[in-house]
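Fold this sequence, please.
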Amino acid sequence: MNKKFFIIMKALFLVGVLLLSGGFTPATSAQAKPIEIKVAFGDSSASVFYHSILVPWGKELEAASGGKLKVTHFHSGSLGPANEHWDLAVKGLADVSWQITLLSAGLFPLTDAVTLPPTGIHSAEKMNAILWDLYQNNKYFQKEYQDAKVLFFAGGPPQWYWAAKPIKAMQDMKGLRVGSTGGPAIDAIKLHGGTPTFFLPMDMYLALQKGAIDGVAFIAEGVAAFKLGEIAKYCCAIDLCTFPAMVAMNHRFFDKLPADLKAVVEEVSGKWNTKAGRIVDESNLHAAKALKGMGIEIYQVSEAEQKVWWDALNPMMDGWIKSVNGLGMPGREIMDEVLALSAKY
């Protein structure tokens, strides 16, 4: 009996020594390892959406979590093509991804509403605010994004026309082959007399260089980032379609996070819906000034001229309402809400 008691006491003593010396790792220490968030980005690291939005957002998450979260970025489409980044988040191939909705043909028909120039949405900040409001309160928009958790919207302001020859009036668009990232901009180019061709942003430079297209519909920041101004040296600053984009997280990944980290993700991300819009709008204006300083001719249209360009796009509104009705949703009702939010913000 005494011998057995002695053995037990000796064993307990050794365990205590090991714990104090660090020779035994308790189960709780495994929880100290940070949870990695893999973030996919389809464009170049030179993009404002990457270096001025996703990267600082990730750093804020890490700081707010007290080091419990670690954000790892995968830019330049290293996890998949730019037009498949929504699927990366949905399927869990990435924990988070940034996706331009226009690149996912047919997946976000309701979101296309905020891209239409007649809605009066002519800044990224305003567009992000409207989309967040709709995502929070409109059941049809919630269903559109149901396959992943939207953390915040981070899209771009209206596109302008950039070409290898001057564009100052609609007649200059006739026969012009214009590269576009798709969506309603395709219809806008047609209504203005041009011939649209779908291209991913990273493919536009080569298309211009080889003469496959004569110009692009793109934001100034994108033209600068992809060096398109080396070829497209003329710009017509007519506000065309905005391009919505979102930062979304895989549902299963979010659901597995501890409650305190879920709160961190939502609190930090919520602030970026407004911040992202302001950053992109300011960056776009800065890029336009820089491009002008490089010798690119930017033609600023008058209000009267802009109205002519916009009036030509009015059929897009009716077309959108008709297409949404065809999907079994109240197109007119949804468009009225978008217009009301446009007036609000």
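The longest strand covers residues 35-41. Confidence is low (pLDDT under 50) at residues 1-30.
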